[in-house]
Amino acid sequence: NASEILPSLLKGGDPNDPYGLSGRKNSGDPSNKSGLDGKDPYGQSGRKTSGDPSNKTGLDGEDPYGLSGRKKSSDPFNKSGLGGNGQGESLPEGLARIKLVKAKELINSDIVGKSDPYAVLIYGKQIQKTKTIKNTLEPEWNHEAEFKFPDGDSRNFYIEVFDSDKIGKDTSLGNLTLDITDVLAMDGTEGKWYPLDGVKSGKILLSADFLDKLGRNPSDLIPGLMKGGDLNDPNSRRNSTNPAKVNPSTLHGNVPGGIIPKGKAKLNLIKAKDLIQADKNSKSDPYAVLLYGKQVEKTKVIPNSHEPQWNHEAEFDVPDGDERSFYIEVFDSDKIGQDTSLGNLTLDITDVLSMDGKDGQWFPLKGVKSGKVLLSADFIDELGRNASEILPSLLKGGDPNDPYGLSGRKNSGDPSNKSGLDGKDPYGQSEQKTSGDPS
User: Fold this and answer.
1) In 240-350, at which residue ranges do the beta strands (DSSP E only) sit?
2) Residue 152: band (very low, low, confident or very high) from pLDDT cuts 50, 70, 90
3) DSSP calls for 211-238
4) Is 60 exceeded by the pLDDT of residue 208?
5) Helical residues (DSSP H) of 133-202, grouped into ranges
6) Which among 175, 188, 177, 184 has a CA at the least distance from the CA of 150?
7) How far is CA 6 from each of CA 63, 112, 200, 296, rounded to the nearest angstrom?
8) What dihedral angle (degrees, nearest 10) is formed by the CA atoms of 157, 219, 102, 156?
9) Tell me, what's the pLDDT at 220?
10) Rounded distance, CA 409 to CA 432, Å?
11) For 401-430, what is the mean pLDDT?
12) Please, are residues 207 and 99 in contact by the beta-carbon 8 Å criterion?
């Protein structure tokens, strides 16, 4: 049950290794139950053999999976396994079910009449959208969303409510970010009201269940998750600034992590073609969702078309935490049941910079047999630089926000020294003691 998984997750444990078998060296005394103090609850630290299989000491949840001995596991900022290698090894495997019941006290974004609210639910690369409820500030959706868990190393669920507008972009009515521990804590409860962020008023009523692959309760997972990772950081799912971290790029292959430039990314989703036919008796009614960090935009629905033309201009503030990937998914809007995915696309920040100033580029959609989207992009840099001046540094893991490599220098040397602008180490001058030869 979810209650068996939750304590471990709250303390950064590994719910997929319930007996702490990983990395044991010797068995010790199988009758040793010293783990009851919580430091090694199963008394399994360093064992090669299982000892007494009936030994279930340590069910107090302090370290339910015998992880003592991991390097720096007591460090509250240690995110090992909570977004480290992208495999989600410390997250439980299962199915998260979130029911968005209804909302109340929503702001009224329409001058005439009330709002037409709908909501978008996002986990990793999985997106769901509720139906639109016309002319109300207290919509009742009763939308049940299922998410396969984990999705990479993501641990956060994001919900945003919008007002559907016939003219212009849909207006945000507030958002909410839930950690996996919040979902596990709701398991089996009737429901809970959550206030929406980014607005003066508004709440949504949620309930949730978690079906654990190993059949445990959430109460056994929460303490383990609470011990590791920064639960106040909604972008802890990946460490994109680590140069050793490999990030997939559609146009450049794998690129190293690095400091993300500050500015505004403008994506223009122009149109699509060759989309699959999701409806048996007619063409699809396509729309697209664009996601960057906690920022979400949705295009209009184009009825009965396999070649929709949206010309949707989305603007995102960069960076959003440590996030460097832009995610786009195309859907077929269905009147009955859940909307069907028509394919998706992930773009790295380097892909966006590469498109800057160009007319547009076609990208194939993933997860489907056919389908392409035409995109163009611009990047407005906070320091006023062109994208072509930022891109070489990013492709090599440099710091584009420190264009002269001044950070951490012991001696500034000649301030006119711009060595390293050939791209080999454009900003990585942090350990220089002197400026060296200015030529």
Assistant:
1) 246-249, 253-256, 263-273, 286-292, 295-298, 309-318, 325-332, 340-348
2) confident
3) EETT---TBTTHHHHHTSS-TT-TTTT-
4) yes
5) 180-186
6) 184
7) 12, 46, 32, 29
8) -10
9) 67
10) 6
11) 48
12) yes
- Answer for the pair 89, 70: CB distance below 8 angstroms, yes or no: no
- What contacts 421, CB < 8 A, 6 or more positions away? none
The vertex-436 CA angle with 434 and 405, nearest 5°, equals 65
Per-residue model confidence (pLDDT) at position 37: 40
CA atoms within 13 A of residue 224's CA, in its CB half-sphere: 38
Over residues 341-365, mean pLDDT: 92
Helix (H, G, I), strand (E, B) or coil at 421: coil
- pLDDT band for position 186 (50/70/90)? confident
Amino acid type, 374: L
Residue 381 in tokens: 């840099």
Q: Which residues contact 321 (CB under 8 A, 6 or more apart)?
A: 233, 234, 235, 293, 294
Q: Residue 385 gets which letter from DSSP?
A: -
Q: In angstroms, rounded to a whole number, what is the distance separating the alpha carbons of residues 394 and 427?
A: 10
How many Å is the maximal CA-CA distance in the chain?
A: 75
Determine if residue 293 is left, alpha or beta; phi over 0 gives left, psi from -120 to 50 gives alpha, anything else beta. left
Which helix (H) or strand (E) covers residue 101, if one does? strand 94-104
pLDDT (tens digit per residue) in 255-299 = 777 788 999 999 999 999 999 988 777 788 999 999 888 788 889
Note if the bond before 150 is cis, omega within 30 degrees: yes
Q: Which amino acid is at 123?
A: Y
Average pLDDT, the chain: 74
Please state, in angstroms and as integers, the Cα–Cα distance from residue 92 to each residue in 10, 53, 209, 263, 323, following that order. Answer: 11, 22, 13, 36, 23
Cα–Cα distance for residue pair 225/9, rounded to 1 Å: 3
CB neighbour burial string for 360-373, b if at least 16 within 10 angstroms, e if fewer? ebebebeebeebbb
Q: Is the pLDDT of residue 64 over 70?
A: no
List the end-to-end C-alpha distance of the chain, in Å, as a whole number: 66
Rounded-to-integer distance, Cα 340 and Cα 241, Å: 34
- Which pLDDT score is estimated for 194? 94
Name residue, tokens 């030869």.
437
What are 74's two structure tokens? 């007591």
